[in-house]
Design a protein that fits this description.
The strands form two sheets. Strands 1-6-3-2-9-10 form a six-stranded antiparallel barrel. Strands 4-5 form a two-stranded antiparallel sheet. It has about 170 residues and is an alpha+beta fold. A hairpin with a 2-residue loop joins strand 7 and strand 8. The protein is about 20% helix and about 45% strand.
Length: about 170
């Protein structure tokens, strides 16, 4: 016993720095979670997209409750609430140089409306860190269809609309 040395664990400055850094990291995460819950400004919006021209076989691949994704950043936006199809909107120039609106055979226009959750900002809404405004041109995957289109309207949804929205109920089942 006389030859055995007592091993005493001393707390050195590196140990103290590690403990302080870990404590600060835990505090930062806690503050972020509390701030996000208290100051959550996100709300539901109806967003309408208009596609002037797409092949006739694309719109039938979209159904109510289908997921909408912004292909540019693979941002899942929300779910489809309706899709309406009309004649395609093509523009052609006549012999006099005047531009006329015409329709193209085998093509149609599509108006897709969906419900999304976003955070308002001055000119539109933020979804997944991306800004969306009326007039925004983008590639949208809706259901199994792919569309090159523009955002034509963004309108806040009321709590009653959100509670009664069948597309959200369909999406929740999946």
């Amino acid at each position: 016993m006389a030859g055995e040395a007592k091993t005493k664990k001393k707390l050195n400055s590196i140990d103290i720095i590690i403990i302080v850094v870990l404590a600060l990291a835990v505090c930062a995460v806690g503050v972020k979670v509390v701030v996000d819950k208290v100051f959550d400004r996100s709300q539901y919006y109806y967003i309408t997209f208009f596609c002037e021209e797409t092949p006739d076989f694309v719109p039938p691949k979209v159904s109510v409750g289908g997921v909408m994704t912004d292909e540019s950043g693979y941002v899942e936006m929300g779910v489809v609430t309706s899709i309406d199809v009309g004649p395609s909107a093509s523009y052609a120039t006549d012999d006099e140089g005047k531009i006329h609106l015409t329709s193209r055979e085998g093509y149609c226009s599509a108006t897709i409306t969906g419900i999304v959750k976003g955070v308002p900002f001055d000119n539109g809404i933020l979804i997944g860190g991306n800004r969306y405004t009326t007039g925004h041109t983008m590639t949208l995957r809706a259901g199994e269809g792919k569309f090159y289109l523009r955002i034509s309207d963004i309108v806040p949804a009321t709590e009653e609309q959100v509670a009664n929205e069948p597309a959200l109920k369909l999406a929740a089942k999946d």
